[in-house]
Design goal:
313 residues; alpha/beta; Rossmann fold; seven-stranded mixed β-sheet; 13 helices; 51% helix
Length: 313
């Protein structure tokens, strides 16, 4: 009820909307949905003279988490979020390639030609990567591809092609060593949780498998999906599982959440495998979930702002 009250007030041009512009943005988006004018492109901070930065949603599909980042980047940096089409009840995309093509189309409505400044957090970085590949393939110029703690989904498939058995074993050994190091650093009661989370029996993996089985059963039978299966997050997980990335001939900028128990070599090696132009790494204090929140978002914005400025010059 309180949130609905915020939305009612957000539709009024008063001091509330100036103080909490994110609610005004959300109210406008809901109004546009009601009139059939929905767009995946959301102007979180549309003002400023600099080239706009386009940031793709994480696995949940919405872009509200980017509000603080846009605010810290300052009033002269336009910031646009790209959110999942499925949030409005429209059919959700089921592949990363479809998402990337749709978001490029939305982005071009605002900026018809490059150079483009794009990025995304978590799964959003992987979608932005596919956008970069498609933009390069069509001859567009890309200024920066900013990955906000994005795991290089599917890179192992590309790395395995042409790799020797010795190389595969060496990579497996490095991965095992990293996981053992993480386990040793955890308190006793958290060790088992870590092992389960990294295995095929982890809660996320089991949930995805169940959802995918049900989804494919309904699809094969030609039945409409029940509301319980129309979950944007699950569609996004499914798309990530199916994605097979191709090499990118440019450079990527990785903002790594340094407090996460995630093998750094896996992140770095993965992006080095995909990005033939190299990887610039910037460490951000905090974990995968809180690097976009206070107090770490200020540091993220500072480092991202410097990278954007370097590409503008």
């Amino acid at each position: 009820m309180a949130f609905e009250g915020y939305l009612r007030r957000a539709r009024q041009p008063d001091v509330f909307t100036r103080t909490f512009p994110v609610y005004a943005q959300l109210a406008a988006a809901l109004d546009s949905h009601a009139t059939g004018e929905y767009s995946s492109l959301v102007a979180i901070q549309p003002n400023g003279s600099r080239p706009p930065f386009f940031c793709v949603h994480a696995v949940g599909g919405n872009i509200l988490e980017y509000y603080d980042l846009a605010r810290y980047l300052g009033p002269d940096q336009p910031f646009y979020g790209l959110q999942s089409r499925g949030l409005t009840g429209a059919p959700a995309h089921t592949t990363i390639e479809e998402m990337a093509a749709h978001y490029i189309s939305e982005m071009r409505k605002l900026q018809p030609a490059g150079p483009y400044f794009i990025g995304g957090r978590s799964l959003g970085g992987m979608i932005a990567y596919e956008m970069a590949c498609q933009l390069r393939a069509s001859g567009d110029e890309l200024a920066i591809l900013a990955l906000l703690d994005s795991y290089p989904v599917g890179y192992h498939r590309l790395a395995a092609n042409g790799a020797s058995e010795t190389g595969k074993m060496q990579r497996f050994g490095r991965r095992v060593h990293a996981h053992l190091s993480n386990i040793r650093s955890l308190p006793g009661k958290e060790k088992l949780s870590y092992v389960l989370a990294k295995s095929k029996f982890g809660p996320v993996q089991v949930k995805i498998k169940i959802w995918r089985t049900l989804y494919e059963a309904y699809k094969n039978l030609g039945l409409d999906l029940p509301q319980a299966l129309k979950d944007v997050e699950q569609f996004n997980w499914l798309a990530a599982q199916k994605y097979c990335p191709q090499p990118f001939d440019g450079r990527v900028t990785l903002f790594w959440a340094s407090k996460d128990l995630r093998a750094k070599f896996d992140m770095v090696e993965g992006w080095q495998t995909l990005a033939r132009g190299g990887v610039d790494i910037h460490e951000i204090p905090g974990t995968h979930l809180d690097m976009i929140k206070e107090p770490h978002v200020a540091d993220l914005a500072k480092q991202l702002s410097a990278c954007l400025a370097a590409e503008r010059s």
